[in-house]
Amino acid sequence: MNLPNLKKLYLDENEIKVVSGLQDCSMLEELHIAKQRLPTFTPLEFQFESLSKLSKTLQVLDVSGNGITILTQFQILIFLKKFLCQDNNVINLGEVENVILHLPRLEEANFYNNPCCKQAKYRDIAIGASPDPFHTLDEIPVPKHQQIAIRGLMTHRRSLGAVSKFLTSQIDNTNRNSNGGENDHEDDHDNKYESNKFTDEMVAVGTNE
User: Fold this and answer.
1) pTM for this structure?
2) ∠ at Cα 108 (73, 94), nearest 5°?
């Protein structure tokens, strides 16, 4: 697609399986490619060359309803301000945390109705990874004081060398499977303890504000 002056591209509800051929769209700011009619269990794919080229200009990306499971590929879109990724199949909450950490200009994101959103600390983890301009998650406003408190706690935990359990969940799952699930009971106990500890720290931070 040789459209060097194109700024907005709407391709919703088509049958595109792989997003490619956008290397010459050197001024593209918005890409809307939601709800592709894909075979069951087939996620929408993105050619790296196209994403790499768009990383210098793209500000709005809508990939909702496409069976996407991995968000790492979107980390290079450092000028992205609005990321719509609802109704996909993202299971690992670490994918959400990691992609937000790599988008310094992100203002709004929507991950609603992904499996990972059902996890108890989903919203805290997402907000804790957010940059200064961020103000809306899943169409719900994020108050600045809330963002500061949660993000401050997450930064403090990282400074102490704490690694997000969500970023390492895939490794944990692999180890659990190799052990035949024998440590499941211990993991459940540790997770409950960690959840309570996290909540206590949130209260402490809010009080100090």
Assistant:
1) 0.77
2) 45
